[in-house]
From TrEMBL:
Organism of derivation: Ancrocorticia populi
A Pfam family that the UniProt record links to this protein: Hydrolase
Designated name of the protein: Haloacid dehalogenase
Superkingdom to which the source organism belongs: Bacteria
Molecular function (Gene Ontology), one example: hydrolase activity
InterPro entries, alphabetized: CbbY-like, HAD-like_sf, HAD-SF_hydro_IA, HAD_sf, PGP-like_dom2
Coiled coil: none
Gene3D superfamilies: HAD superfamily/HAD-like (3.40.50.1000), Putative phosphatase, domain 2 (1.10.150.240)
Length: 253
């Protein structure tokens, strides 16, 4: 059985920039905290897998904002901030303000029709991933969601992909991952999985040395063609990523 594993944020939709980033700042404002994240700083924080981990890392970088807080206090604050942020993020997704990225629904539908197992593998909260899946993909096109705190170590650790492969009983040699970030691509590589990268607004300047193919998007026929940034251009068909592309990636090893 062939398997397609997809990251969520930046792959299904450009949610990091237009969803998570403003939702974090909303949570900080609601909590009465004296700071907001700037976009340049968020570009660095995006390299950290997991929302709670990003918040905690920010407090580690800025100890002036945690003065007087014990570790238990900080744990509680991080959890509350993340809960508020997640609720705001889901509201944004359910409002329909963030469209799906070009080609993702088409490719998932094609993979399902061809008998592939299709699942999500993300460091975001399960509820956040479900919201994006419901907003972007055809109903019942996903065979599983592996996300959030279901594994001990988040991307770039390979844990989430190893867990997905194990639970789905997938053959690693017959599995393709679609990612958008360096931590995600590194996680796929460390799990021994071939991967394709579709760069997003926050990752278009990143390097992906182990990717089989790096593209601007998955592309939509006659609407938005995909461009190859790295890898064999012949893997694209009609200027879009197709099932032939995925088959070509599997055959290229």
């Amino acid at each position: 059985m062939k398997t397609l594993l997809l990251d969520c944020d930046g792959v299904l939709a450009d949610t990091e920039l237009y969803g998570h980033f403003p939702a974090f700042n909303y949570a900080f404002e609601e909590a009465g905290l004296p700071f907001r994240w700037e976009l340049d700083e968020y570009r660095e924080l995006v390299l950290i897998g997991g929302g709670k981990e990003r918040i905690r890392q920010y407090f580690e970088r800025h100890p002036e904002y945690r003065t007087g807080l014990t570790e238990a206090d900080l744990d509680g604050l991080v959890a509350r901030l993340h809960e508020t942020k997640t609720q705001k993020y889901i509201e944004t997704i359910e409002s329909g303000k963030i469209p799906g990225r070009p080609g993702v629904r088409r490719l998932v539908d094609q993979a399902t029709a061809d008998g592939w197992t299709v699942a999500m593998a993300s460091t975001s909260a399960v509820s956040s991933v479900k919201a994006v899946v419901n907003a972007v993909l055809t109903p019942n096109s996903i065979d599983g969601i592996f996300a959030g705190d279901s594994v001990k170590a988040k991307k770039p650790a390979p844990d989430i992909y190893l867990a997905a492969v194990s639970a789905l009983r997938a053959d690693p040699q017959q599995t393709v991952v679609i990612e958008d970030s360096n931590p995600g691509a590194t996680a796929a590589f460390n799990a021994g999985l071939r991967h394709l990268v579709t760069v997003s607004a926050l990752t278009r300047d990143a390097a992906f040395p182990h990717a089989s193919l790096v593209v601007t998007s998955l592309g939509e026929p006659n609407e938005e063609p995909a461009s190859v940034l790295a890898g064999p251009a012949e893997l694209l068909h009609g200027s879009v990523v197709t099932m032939q592309t995925l088959e070509g990636i599997l055959e290229s090893a």
